[in-house]
Design goal:
Blueprint: H1 3-10, H2 14-20, H3 26-29, E1 36-39, E2 46-48, E3 54-58, E4 63-67, E5 91-93, E6 96-99, H4 104-112, E7 125-126, H5 129-152, H6 155-164, H7 173-186, H8 188-194, H9 198-211, E8 215-217, E9 221-224, E10 230-233, H10 240-248, H11 254-264
Length: 265
C-alpha cells in the first residue's frame, strides 16, 4: 500500500479528503468535463507560476497544510502525496492556461492558490463561462425581440427608422426590410430603441425633407431649398444633420419643424 493511501486511511475520513484534494474517485473527477481557462492578465508571452511550497489554511480540516502541484499525484496536499512526488511546472502562455478535465489536481491547485484573484490574490483568475453563457442567451433574446419588432411595425414606422439609419428607401419594401433585418441582428438594442427615440423620428423627418428638396443640408449651413435662406450655421467639423436635428428638437426650432410638417403634408 502506498504512503498516500496509508495516510488517507489513517487520517481524516475519506469523504473529507475527497472534498479538499481532487480525489481519483470518478464522482469527483467527472463532475465537470469542460476545459477551464485561467488568465494571468500581466503574464506576458510566457509566465511561470512560482513552484515554492505554499502553506495555506485548509478549511475542511482546520489545519495549515502545504499546497503543491505534482502532475502524477491525485492530491494537491503534500501530506497526501507519495514519497517521491515531484513538483510540476505551471506555465501560462500568452496570459492563458487551459486546464482539461483530465487535470483535476491542477484545477484544484489553482483554485486554492493564494495568487488566485478569487482568494484575494492578484496574479490570475478563472474565466467565468457561466456569465458568458448567460450573456449569450440574453443577446439571442434581444435579437429575437428586435426581429419581432421589425415584423410587427407598419411600413411608415419602418421607413422612418430606415431613413434615420441612412438606408436607401427608394427601393422595394422587401429590400428595405432586408437591410433593417441586418441592422436588427447586428445592433438589436439600438434598433429597438430607435422606435421610441425622438432623435430618430426627427432625423427621419429631416432626411425626408431634404430628399423632397424642402431644405438643403450642406457642410457649412442648413438652408431653405427654394429661397436659399439660412436656417442655421453648422460649426466647422460638425455633422450637419446632427446639428439640424438637435436644433429642431429645441424650442427655437419649433417654427422650422412646423413649416417642414406643412410642406411634407
Amino acid at each position: 500500500m502506498s504512503q498516500a493511501n496509508t495516510k488517507a486511511g489513517r487520517g481524516r475520513p475519506r469523504k473529507n479528503v475527497s472534498k479538499i484534494s481532487v480525489s481519483s474517485d470518478s464522482s469527483v473527477v467527472n463532475r465537470d468535463r469542460s476545459t477551464k481557462r485561467w488568465i494571468a492578465p500581466k503574464g506576458g508571452n510566457v509566465y511561470l507560476l512560482g513552484q515554492r511550497e505554499l502553506s495555506v489554511f485548509d478549511e475542511e480540516s482546520g489545519n495549515i497544510r502545504v499546497l503543491r502541484y505534482c502532475a502524477g499525484e491525485n492530491s494537491v496536499w503534500r501530506d497526501e502525496q507519495s514519497e517521491y512526488a515531484a513538483k510540476s511546472p505551471i506555465v501560462f502562455r500568452d496570459k492563458n492556461l487551459f486546464v482539461g478535465p483530465d487535470q483535476p489536481n491542477l484545477q484544484r491547485f489553482l483554485e486554492l492558490h493564494p495568487s488566485n484573484m478569487a482568494n484575494n490574490g492578484s496574479v490570475f483568475y478563472m474565466e467565468d463561462n457561466s456569465a458568458k453563457v448567460e450573456q449569450t442567451v440574453d443577446d439571442e433574446f434581444l435579437i429575437h425581440d428586435a426581429i419581432s419588432l421589425l415584423r410587427s411595425k407598419d411600413l411608415d414606422e419602418l421607413m422612418a427608422v430606415a431613413i434615420s439609419f441612412s438606408i436607401d428607401t427608394d427601393r422595394p419594401a422587401s429590400e428595405i426590410k432586408h437591410d433593417l433585418l441586418i441592422k436588427a441582428k447586428s445592433s438589436p438594442q439600438t434598433f429597438i430603441d430607435s422606435f421610441d427615440n425622438p432623435v430618430v423620428a426627427m432625423k427621419a423627418k429631416l432626411r425626408q425633407a431634404e430628399g423632397m428638396q424642402i431644405v438643403s443640408v450642406k457642410e457649412d449651413a442648413i438652408r431653405w431649398y427654394d429661397t436659399n435662406k439660412t436656417i442655421i450655421i453648422v460649426p466647422p467639423g460638425k455633422d450637419p444633420m446632427d446639428i439640424f436635428v438637435r436644433y429642431c428638437l429645441t424650442e427655437g426650432g419649433a417654427a422650422v419643424v412646423a413649416q417642414i410638417d406643412k410642406e411634407l403634408g
